[in-house]
Amino acid sequence: MLGQRRLYATASRFITSARPTNGFVGAIGNTPLIRINSLSKETGCEILGKAEFMNPGGSVKDRAALFVVEDAERKGLIKAGGTVVEGTAGNTGIGLAHVCRAKGYKCVIYMPNTQSQEKIDLLKMLGADVRPVPAVAYDNPNNYNHQAKRFAESLDNAVWTNQFDNTANRQAHIETTGPEIWAQTDGKVDGFTCATGTGGTFAGTTRFLKEASDGRVKSFAADPPGSVIYSYVKSKGKEMVRGGSSITEGIGQGRITANLQPDIELIDDALKIPDSATIHMLYRLLDEEGIYLGASSALNVAAAYEMAKALGPGKTIVTMMCDGAYRYQSRLFSRKWLESKDLLGAIPEHLQKYIALA
């Protein structure tokens, strides 16, 4: 009997007040906020990463996927047995494929043919009809987003969820991500930074944190090479310079989306993070923290590190750890691929032991 009591006492330490969720969609959100110990110690700040890889579909895009589908349902744009169509570089598609399976919809995904094979395979395993198309600029009528829109319009009982300009995406983060961060830090957050793809995560979270703090929380946009956001913010909207390219997937933009536009004036500054800093941070986090992140997440953490140094010691900085590295491992942990991108030298010798693939 005593043994059973001890067992129960031990188990009770791991029991929370949360009840079982209502299926897959009920498990989306309420992700942990993880202190990145090594970077916090180095900077004298609290650097915290929102563990979005712990969403049931494995990324922050589960939130947007749920909100855009339920927005379509409320508006009567889709009914039982209908088809959800989206143009996506990967994670939104994966979130949509999960949500569609949970709700009984068909799912069709148009995506650039530059995306990792792991993402494409996962989408197919989730039952999505995946249609890789050549990667062309947004102003080209054959851009994957425009193809998705045209296909949805050709079907009955179908909706193009339009993640880039459907502000239900942004609303997901006003209603969930921002309030979670505020509660998890007891309102003591000083800075928020992450990259933008659709702009929904960055804009929605920024909007909530700015309003909750009466403007006190600083918001820095993080940007990879090849995106215009950095130049747009730095020039106060006068320039949109797009040069170079990046290893990151699903972030960076050549325009200001409808999700980002309402909150563009709330951005305090921007940080351009080179791929060398991103890949270095990715390997450093694996070695020092045991955290296995994709490149976009590593870029966000690198931006949080730079923001902490800019704001000075004693501040609490939050960023988004969007997804894990397993969706990109055939690239990020391949010596041949790293060499092809001239990034092997960005990884210190003592960290190259993690390069597991030829």
From TrEMBL:
Q: Which reaction does it catalyse?
A: O-acetyl-L-serine + hydrogen sulfide = L-cysteine + acetate; O-succinyl-L-serine + hydrogen sulfide = L-cysteine + succinate
Give the protein's cofactors.
Answer: pyridoxal 5'-phosphate
Record-listed E.C. numbers: 2.5.1.47
The UniProt keyword set, sorted, is: Amino-acid biosynthesis, Mitochondrion, Pyridoxal phosphate, Transferase, Transit peptide
GO MF terms held by the record = cysteine synthase activity
State the InterPro entries in the record: Cys_Synth/Cystath_Beta-Synth (IPR050214), P-phosphate_BS (IPR001216), TrpB-like_PALP (IPR001926), TrpB-like_PALP_sf (IPR036052)
Q: In which pathway does it act?
A: Amino-acid biosynthesis; L-cysteine biosynthesis; L-cysteine from L-serine: step 2/2
Compartment(s) of residence: Mitochondrion
Q: Which residues form the Tryptophan synthase beta chain-like PALP domain?
A: 27-323
State the family named in the UniProt similarity comment for this chain: Belongs to the cysteine synthase/cystathionine beta-synthase family.
**What job does this protein perform?**
Catalyzes the conversion of O-succinyl-L-serine into cysteine, the last step in the cysteine biosynthesis pathway. Can also use O-acetyl-L-serine.
Cited NCBIfam families: PRK10717.1 (NF007989)
What is the recorded name of this protein?
A: Cysteine synthase 1
